[in-house]
Specification:
By secondary structure, this protein is of the alpha/beta class. It has 5 helices and 15 strands. It has helices spanning about 30-45, 90-100, 140-150, 225-230, 240-245, and strands spanning about 5-10, 50-55, 70-75, 80, 110, 120-125, 130-135, 155-160, 170-175, 180, 195-200, 210, 215-220, 235-240, 255. Strand 13, helix 4 and strand 14 form a beta-alpha-beta unit. It is globular. Belongs to the DDAH family.
Length: about 260
């Protein structure tokens, strides 16, 4: 099933080594290795029958390779978010030009202050969007997001987060009713209607896989997750994201898929 035709990515900048991190995965990123891993990520996406728009590195924003956060793209509209991390807030202006190549101005919406919202807190399941209430996404941001979605014929529900940075840190939808879950998301009532595939604690990072046109891209080095995804019947590709993990980033963070 082909659902996505386009992907937007941004090359990592040298300043990424000073990006935001919780320290959960210690060490500073190796920039040269991060570039190679980004190359491999782009190649994996191309194997999934999508066109990839590659934006240049932006040294003003160390975390700007994580393009998922400053925008959410749906089938009916694009929403420029208002990132909750102050050092990342300006990224919303830099992603707008790329989004305009695919959407008319009337179909580009914005989250306005005091609302904050980051795309890493947004998970699309058909025409419904789950949004994590987190340190980066507040209730006003979710209220605006819901209003925008309803205007464009879609729905939204809020999911309070207890431990993780972003919603998709611990739960990701693979289509066909299948959902990868770890940690606090294993028992969340909102997700019990799906076929939940529980990720072992030692491989929790790899809950952040991405489905792209019936292929699931899995972080390299997580055999239990890879086997679980294969058992669901998906074609799989693996990409090493070790340098992005040091910045609490994963596969979904590195692209906008639509």
């Amino acid at each position: 099933m082909k659902k996505f035709s386009h992907v937007i990515v941004r090359r990592p900048c040298r300043a990424m080594v000073e990006g935001i991190t919780s320290g959960e995965y210690p060490g500073k990123p190796d920039y040269d290795l991060a570039l190679k891993q980004h190359d491999d990520y782009i190649e994996a996406l191309k194997k999934c029958q999508v066109d990839v728009t590659i934006l240049p590195a932006d040294e003003r924003y160390p975390d700007s390779c994580f393009v998922e956060d400053p925008a959410v793209i749906t089938k009916n509209c694009a929403i420029i978010t208002n990132p909750g991390a102050p050092s990342r807030n300006g990224e919303k202006e830099e992603i707008t030009g790329a989004v305009r190549k695919f959407f008319s101005d009337e179909d580009i919406e914005r989250i306005e202050a005091p609302g904050t919202l980051e795309g890493g807190d947004v998970m699309m399941v058909g025409d419904h969007f789950y949004v994590g209430l987190s340190a980066r996404t507040n209730e006003e941001g979710i209220r605006q997001f819901k209003e925008i979605l309803e205007k464009h014929g879609m729905t939204c529900s809020q999911v309070p987060l207890e431990k993780v940075l972003h919603l998709k840190t611990g739960v990701n939808y693979l289509e066909d009713g299948n959902m990868l879950v770890s940690g606090e998301f294993v028992t969340k009532e909102e997700f019990q209607k799906y076929n939940l595939v529980e990720i072992p604690e030692e491989e929790a990072y790899a809950a952040n896989c991405i489905w792209v046109n019936d292929t699931v891209i899995v972080p390299e080095g997580y055999p239990a997750v890879l086997e679980a995804v294969k058992k669901l019947g998906y074609r799989t590709l693996t990409v090493d994201t070790s340098e992005y993990r040091k910045l609490d980033g994963g596969l979904s963070c590195l692209s906008l898929r639509f």
